[in-house]
Design goal:
globular, alpha/beta, single chain, Rossmann fold
Length: 358
């Protein structure tokens, strides 16, 4: 397996700080564990940042865009031209991606790694095009001429451009047809039938869903013997999926938290974690969408999502909507009084914890 930046290594988060954060939560004036997933998430942030309490500074979102020529197989009800139109829209601060990034103070960059369109000079889209879209993987491997490695490198380099103060990254995507590639990656890497991984995407009819599952099943037949993550990415992936995987790897190297969005971003995590399993320890699941395939991925990594609202917009929206929960959780962690400070008895809590107490 050839990785573009072998000098990038990932240190594990500090487990001692996770345990220390959990002890802090246990002393706060509230029922034990009453903030649920939020408590473990803030403790995870402490471990990632090696900081008690954690902090959020210079948040960033990187949206990678690429087309998928498997759409010729009838797997999408959107026109391919929507990819470049939305990519340009996002780069101008529009769409859910642009609106939510501005609302929450994110540095945002929109990067063309594989769009089947030439953006004009001076465009607000960052040009890193590797090829004009991933090939139809039923006809040939999706990424050609070392495209998988080039996509990973584009993701690495995008993270390199971020402020050294950045503590959290949202990897985002745009690409008509990319949930089909996500489903193929998931089926191959988690050994799942296409009925478990190929969902309705952006609103497929029953007939279109049947076609999509058939296409993903054929991809598994063609490439299911592969095990190397770069080979799988090459066979059925997308340039934007590879770039997100590279961004995740470099973000973890820089000890940044990764706030995960939906299905396509989750499939990129499968690739990244197959390259270096420690990357998953830096991930916070922002949102569980409506695709069953994403649920399988989160369960595979033992990740509990902050939100599950049945959304499926892509473009990082689910993660960006979940982001304010982190700042609220940090505020609770940092400012809630202890039982002693609040002059509230914690006798019941200590008895439940099994402490010797009279």
């Amino acid at each position: 397996m050839s990785i573009p930046h072998p000098e990038i290594s990932i240190d594990p988060p500090d487990r001692n700080l996770y345990a220390a954060a959990q002890r802090v939560w246990a002393t706060r004036v509230k029922p034990p564990g009453s903030f649920g997933v939020l408590e473990s998430t803030i403790s995870r942030l402490c471990a990632i940042q090696r900081s008690l309490p954690p902090r959020l500074s210079a948040p960033a979102a990187l949206l990678f865009a690429g087309d998928h020529h498997c759409v010729t197989e009838g797997v999408s009800n959107s026109l391919q031209e929507v990819t470049w139109q939305q990519t340009l829209n996002f780069s101008r601060g529009k769409g859910a991606f642009g609106i939510l990034c501005a609302l929450h103070g994110f540095t945002a960059e929109v990067i063309d790694v594989g769009v089947n369109h030439d953006f004009p000079p001076g465009s607000s889209v960052t040009g890193c095009k590797i090829a004009p879209g991933a090939a139809n993987f039923l006809k040939q491997p999706a990424l050609v001429h070392g495209g998988a490695s080039k996509a990973l490198k584009a993701g690495y380099e995008a993270v390199e451009r971020l402020s050294p103060k950045c503590t959290i990254l949202v990897p985002a995507e745009m690409g008509v047809g990319n949930t089909t590639s996500a489903a193929a990656i998931t089926s191959i890497m988690l050994t799942l039938d296409s009925s478990e991984t190929a969902g309705r995407g952006a609103g497929l009819t029953d007939r279109q869903l049947e076609m999509k599952q058939k296409v993903v099943g054929e991809a598994v037949r063609l490439y299911g013997h592969l095990s190397d993550p770069l080979d799988i990415l090459t066979a059925v992936g997308g340039y934007e999926i590879g770039a997100m995987a590279g961004a995740m790897l470099h973000a973890a190297h820089r000890k940044m938290a990764i706030l995960l969005d939906g299905y396509v971003a989750s499939s990129a995590l499968l690739v990244a974690a197959a390259i270096d399993s420690r990357v998953s320890e830096y991930v916070i699941a922002g949102h569980l969408g409506s695709e069953r395939g994403q649920r399988h991925i989160l369960e595979h990594f033992g990740l509990s999502p902050l939100l599950s609202l049945g959304m499926f917009p892509g473009e990082g929206a689910g993660a960006l909507i979940a982001y304010p929960l982190l700042s609220q959780g940090i505020e609770l962690f940092s400012t809630l009084e202890s039982f002693e400070q609040a002059e509230v008895s914690d006798r019941a809590n200590r008895l439940l914890a099994g402490d010797a107490f009279v």
